[in-house]
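S.,

As promised, the flavin mononucleotide run. Input:
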Amino acid sequence: MDFFDAVAGRRSIRSYSPVPPPPESLARAFEAATLAPSQMNEQPWRFIVVEGEARDRLCSLVAGSTRMLRDMFPLLDADSLAFAANFLNDLGGAPAAIVVTYPAAESEGDLKVNLLAAGGAILLLQLALRAEGLGSVCVTCADWVEDAIRQDLGYQNERLAAIIPVGFPDGDPGEQPVREDKTVRLREWPV
Ligand SMILES: Cc1cc2nc3c(=O)[nH]c(=O)nc-3n(C[C@H](O)[C@H](O)[C@H](O)COP(=O)(O)O)c2cc1C
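Predicted complex:
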């Protein structure tokens, strides 16, 4: 798939078929993601693939964050909150999820640059998954249960960047809605 087609066609997928993602597709996507730039080429990210029982346990833990949704998104209406809670309860039925972590650093500066690099790798991962015909979504609202996830997966000295459910999309989410202010922001350059 052409790069720009992958960029234009990527959407956040919140409903998945139960068919597992092919291991070779995941392998290609990880290879692409790890080519992301990073400070001093430190590659400060780790991808933990979670399937089967571990995926079910992750879903149970993430479901625990739904009670915080109203505090996190005070502007969401009742329907959107219910949709978000329903999605989080089972990660949209995704047969696999990728837990992305980055090294816990002492300084705020190091934390920021680690997370920034991990974010770049996540975007490359999502685009590569799209090119493989797979869907994904970057889920960050599980921060409330970060400690429980760390304990369950058994990693230390790492922070949770995001959870990326992955699988074949169940349905077509359509095109990305255009934000009213998008063009204005683009027109701000050059100043
Ligand atoms: C940093 C980041 C955090 C996000 N966190 C969440 C999240 O916690 N839950 C969720 O359902 N979607 C999350 N998303 C997905 C966005 O809602 C989505 O990218 C945005 O609405 C644009 O839609 P699209 O990805 O379909 O183009 C996140 C995306 C990014 C980049």
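The longest helix spans residues 108-131. The chain has one domain: 3-187.

- D.
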